[in-house]
Amino acid sequence: MNRSPAPPPHRTVSGAARRPRPSRSPAVDLPPDSLGYALRQAARLVAGVLEGANLTDAFEHALKQHPEWSEATRGAVRDLAWTTLRDYGRGDVVLQRLLHAPPPVFVRALLLVSLYRLTQRPEQAHTTVDQAVQAVTAEMPGLKGMVNAVLRNALRKSSEWPGWIAADEAARHAHPPWWIERVRRAHPGNWAAALEAGNQRPPMALRVNRRRIGVDDAMAMLQAADMRARLLANDALLLERPVAVHRVPGYGDGLVSVQDAGAQWAAHLLDPRDGERVLDACAAPGGKSAHLLERADIELLALELDAQRAERIHRNLARLGLAAQVRVADCRELAAWWDGRPFDRILADVPCSASGVARRHPDIKWLRRDEDIRRFAAQQAQILEALWRTLAPGGTMLYVTCSVFDEENRMQIERFRARHGDAEQLPIDNRPDCQLLPNAEHDGFYFALLRKSR
Q: Which of 16, 113, 160, 234 would be 108's cystine partner, CB 3.0–4.6 Å?
């Protein structure tokens, strides 16, 4: 899978005064099943992002610190943090109208989380304000009056929020201006719908391990568990409602896996055949590698640059009863991993901006910068150059990103083909390539299929 690292930690989202947060919890605390507790913990995650942290890493760290959290607490904290950051462009504009001076970063984050909940649960407005005051009292008690005043003022002026948001393009679309412009240029016919889809909760799809169970049997298994699902064109099962992974019947036994429906097109398009030698060049966490192995008896080499992420490949393959050679290496450094034997098929799922999956990683929207795209494009070009050398004549390479930006997608392939006369682009569904934009069924992905003619 494409590795899309968070921006360097020195990047911050403007608007908060940088002050040290407490190194240990104050004596005042909140019941872990209370709204105030969830607001406080979500605000800590959002505060970390405002200072440049990766949201997923911060949440995983919080889970390790709080193994006692119930499923309900974990879900509440995660939902508040993720939805606040998806909507950050709007909440930030509202907050700018309510603040006279930048507050400490935790307080700014708490106000953002609280404002989002006010929009989603207006009937619980007084409870939200009260619990936000409890949350700041447990963290920075001297500022409880300020939080109370700002939120009550926000309620008094709630009828003005739509006008404030409408007057600011970044707030209307809940994306940074440079991001909006890139999507508008690349997808002039449906750019607004793509941006709006990126602000929604992502769908949940399952991949059937056809070595162990048929699609019809998997559907029946879900129905027996009172889970409704719809079969998509690529045999992905789209759940009507997302559920916790451990609740998915057959998951622990390796019968099904959680994988976005768009991502499941990769194995279909590469279409490996029995006996072929296949490379997954950027493989963690291993979903696409596993899908390739589920479809055919192949000799698969899975490469991953990061050793910890490579361990996830091993775990995923073990759960599914599949086997592959997994190596930790930079796919650009051929001398470190390639034995000189060419591959029949290569999956080049390259690092990218992850702009097509930002609803799953909403911190990306606010921490990425326009200049990052050029850096990703340069890295992608290096990977393509290296991997092309390892592809057998007549072999095929599937280039994949989870990006919606042309510089990483169509333009990247056009530049590569201009450098390589032996690269023939194969059509996908009667089109030169395939750009999936995020919608209610899948995330955003780009696919281009190349054949080496000699």
A: 16
Q: What is the pLDDT of residue 2?
A: 53
Residue limits of CATH 1.10.940.10 in the chain? 35-169
Considering only the C-alpha atoms of the chain, give the largest distance between any 2 of them, rounded to a whole number of Å: 73
**Start and end residues for every CATH 3.30.70.1170 domain found in the chain:** 204-259
Is omega for the bond preceding 285 within 30 degrees of 0, making it cis? yes
Position with higher pLDDT, 3 vs 369: 369
Residue from 438, 443, 374 nearest 412 by CA: 374
Please say whether the beta carbons of 416 and 233 come within 8 A: no
CATH 3.40.50.150 in the chain is located at: 262-452
Rounded distance, CA 289 to CA 70, Å?
33
- Give per-residue pLDDT as tens, 142-167: 999 999 999 999 999 999 999 999 99
Cβ count within 10 A of residue 312: 17
How far apart CA 400 and CA 157 sit, in angstroms, is: 46
Alpha-carbon gap, residue 449 to 434, rounded angstroms: 9
CATH T-level topology, domain 35-169: N-utilizing Substance Protein B Homolog; Chain A (1.10.940)
Average pLDDT over the chain reads 94
434 catalytically annotated: no
Which fold is adopted by the domain 262-452? Answer: Rossmann fold (3.40.50)
Query: pLDDT value at position 29?
Result: 80
Given this model, what pLDDT does residue 4 score? 52
Q: Residue 364 corresponds to which tokens in the numbers above? A: 């990306």
Closest-CA residue to 217 (of 244, 240, 235, 242): 235
Report d(CA 182, CA 289) in Å as an integer.
Answer: 31
d(CA 385, CA 374): 17
Across the strands, what pairs with 391? 343
Q: Quick one: fold of 204-259?
A: Alpha-Beta Plaits (3.30.70)
Percent of the chain scored above 90 by pLDDT?
A: 93
- Find the catalytic residue in 282, 331, 352, 402: 402
The amino acid that residue 67 corresponds to is: P
Q: How far apart are the first and last CA of the chain?
A: 28
